[in-house]
């Protein structure tokens, strides 16, 4: 029984992976590369021949490239600040984590109402005399502003998940390392660069992998703030599935998201290996 116990404990996780990841993946592969029961690349040709596919790929990657580094930078700063002891820390921590409880759809609706021509931001700027006419954030001719609106919403809503992971990693670093470095004359930035950041690499790696997976699947907030003005892979997959009823092309979009996620995850694992300040012989 003792020999079987580890396998029994792993069984729920294995069943979850098989039924909720393995089966959908196999089904997506079948739909993407078969037609009338026969192997075909027709779905692939139609997908890559659609200009929306390349735009969706471009905007999905562009959003990830812009948002994720800023979120990591902000999360590091906030985590370092919140790792200290000060009055009102619990209230500040609670305020920072609140956006984490809000769905992307709800977040999109909040920021849509704030950024419309008659929204809170424009009214505030007009009343302060900083602008003479409303800033237009929405509409096909203002796609750059729609992109900015998406970035702002995602920074507000999703930075919290990176922050929580980084803060947990900081709290696991023994103060003995930092105190010893301080005794030997290391200043604050040297301690950060030589001790804190290397020891944070596992947390940074985990945060980047999780955040990148979400970034590749971004959909709800984009659909609300920009619709198809700014196509993304998940949004176009949804459009092909529900409006066009083209299950093969929709599967290609899903597989593209999966492939990008796996590729980027592998890169994080390769280039963000943990360093534990061990003496190498």
TrEMBL record:
The lineage of its organism: Archaea, Methanobacteriati, Methanobacteriota, Thermococci, Thermococcales. It comes from the Archaea. The chain crosses the membrane at residues 7-33, 53-79, 91-112, 155-173, 208-226, 247-269. Residues 57-268 form the ABC transmembrane type-1 domain. Keywords: Membrane, Transmembrane, Transmembrane helix, Transport. It is found in: Cell membrane; Membrane. One of its GO terms (cellular component) is plasma membrane. This is N-Acetyl-D-glucosamine ABC transport system, permease protein.
